[in-house]
Amino acid sequence: MSHGTVFNIQKYSLHNGPGIRTTVFLKGCPLSCWWCHNPESRGMDSEILFIEDKCIACGDCERVCPSEAIKLTHKGIKLDKAKCILCGKCSESCPSEALEKIGRKMRAEEVMDEVKKDRVFYEESGGGVTFSGGEPLIQINFLENLLTLSKQMGIHTVVDTSGYSSWENIDRIKGNVDIFLYDIKHMDNEKHKKYIGIPNVLILENLKRLVRSGSRIWVRIPLIPGINDDFFNIARTCEYISSLRLKDLYILPYHNIAKEKYKRLGMKYKIPDAYSLEDKELREISKLFKNYGLNVKIGG
Q1: How far, in Å, CA of 186 to CA of 195, rounded?
Q2: Beta carbons within 8 Å of 222's beta carbon, 6+ residues apart
Q3: Contact 70/62 with Cβ under 8 angstroms?
Q4: Does the N terminus or the C terminus of the chain have fewer Cβ atoms within 10 A?
């Protein structure tokens, strides 16, 4: 498959692998993490995002919509997603950019044309391209094509994954991946199902197999207060990672900057009262991981 759905290409990215990188965000994800920072990535189809405070109530979007999915009311724009055909005419006509179409079909060659523009930065900094999401493995054929093209161009590759995919998919691409950024969100299977929406068995098993394959892996742990930051879960996580003889670990502290995205997409944010951990708390948690011989970094 030479086409896929991309929802963002972020240039000069510093937190998704070594060096200066271009991060390509692919749409689609089988997880439903309560704290997801990219809720626009979950569905495979394009979506319309509405930024209420930019709307000037001109009514242009209502006039151009061919399916009558948009209505301008005294309370603002109302979008009927059942009627919306995702043609994007509303966002194209909006003079204040209050409407935005998220996700577009791209050829692998188109994506790589964007990636290779910053090749000089990759070479000087030891960077490259990172494929993220969503869950990039959900578009396995497209991802495989992108990785193949990257290697043909001599560009360093990183795949940011939850590990929730068939081993066959991971096995198909691992030869063209320089580093896997691999998320571990919770060690308790029942809590994993509650907060992430799926069991963790496949994720943990795939990590074991990936380690045995000799792939380079950086484990990443999104640290969410009240969900996975308790001592028992952290200790189990430490034991599991160290049992695999992995060394590189990144702690990703929770922040709520994506909260507004949920509102713009008409989605419910499940942890509105969650808070960010203080620097002192993060340092204490880091010490626990370091006691297991892990190279710990906060962020990135």
Answers
A1: 9
A2: 33, 35, 183, 185, 228, 252, 254
A3: yes
A4: N
**Residues 108, 97 share a domain:** no
Comparing CA positions, the residue from 251, 233, 294 lying closest to residue 15 is 251
**Which of 57, 72, 101 is where one domain is finished?**
101
**Residue 44: predicted pLDDT:** 87
| Segment (H or E) for 223 | strand 217-223
What is the rounded CA–CA span in Å between residue 169 and residue 206? 11
The structure tokens listed for 90 are: 């509303």
Domain interval for residue 74: 48-101
Instruction: Indicate the number of domains in the chain.
Output: 2
Amino acid at 283: R
pLDDT at residue 51 in the model: 86
> 10-residue block means of pLDDT along the chain (300 residues)?
88 92 97 92 86 89 93 85 89 91 93 95 94 96 97 97 98 98 98 97 98 97 94 94 94 87 85 83 90 88
Q: Please identify which residue in the block is written with the tokens 């994007």.
A: 88
Q: What is the pLDDT of residue 300?
A: 67
Q: Which residues contact 90 (CB under 8 A, 6 or more apart)?
A: 48, 61, 64, 65, 70, 99
CA 282 to chain centre: 22
Measure the CA–CA gap between 203 and 15, rounded to whole angstroms.
22
Can you state the angle between helices 279-290 and 231-243, rounded to 10 degrees? 40
What is the spatial distance between Cα 128 and Cα 246, in angstroms, rounded to a whole number?
23
Residues 182 and 148 placed together within one structural domain of the fold: yes
